[in-house]
């Protein structure tokens, strides 16, 4: 297996935790960008919102899924896990601020959930997190192991035509040559591969749903502020030869402007970045 890159190690995500928390926090509990996809995953799997249940979020970041979940699922207990101590530290401040008793947070690698017992969880989720694991199947096997029989899982993955994915791909194609750079986050961007991996692990009643929510920005230059501490951006930077590194930011802006040509601003005066994801759903037999 290749050496893990920035977006596959906890330090890489520690560095973006504070910026991440600006978008996923108690101030935007049901409107945070990735939370909108977490809500899709919850809605696609939980039939009875009043049921007593244990919900495990893997790669929770600053806790978007659980923070939203406590407001909707009154009889649920949440376990929010992430391998980035900084993400969990910020989630802990949110839990304290809101005086939430039903979210337990843990620093944990999603490829090894050992402290969590077999067949003890009703629902497992991983929204745009498992896609970064060096061993995707190992992560899925752990989700399967901890689920009760009949329990359900939902995993969020970006689609190839999502704006941010396209920006990074076209930028790197322009700087390095076509198809020389492969984004780790695209590990489950092929619907058939996604389905096959869930099947391989043993999940049944598999469904891959395509969903979309726009990301709003004021100007394309804002992307650079957002990316400047992001491990995915550092993966790109490190893949470039020294003479191309200084061109990365401007190329991202040029590609973004090109992709948004002809797009009108929305009623809030913002640019909407089309963002598509697959939610892969499976059930334990
Ligand atoms: C793009 S963020 C998504 C966070 C959150 N799920 C959300 O949707 O807001 C990816 C998260 O996955 C976490 N992550 C990546 N690899 C991981 C691993 N092997 N084990 C646990 N967490 C991991 C990162 O630390 C980061 O918080």
UniProtKB/TrEMBL annotation:
Superkingdom, natural source: Eukaryota
Residue ranges annotated for the Methyltransferase type domain, each copy included: 56-154
GO MF: methyltransferase activity; S-adenosylmethionine-dependent methyltransferase activity
Gene3D superfamilies xref list: Vaccinia Virus protein VP39 (3.40.50.150)
Descriptive protein name: Methyltransferase type 11 domain-containing protein
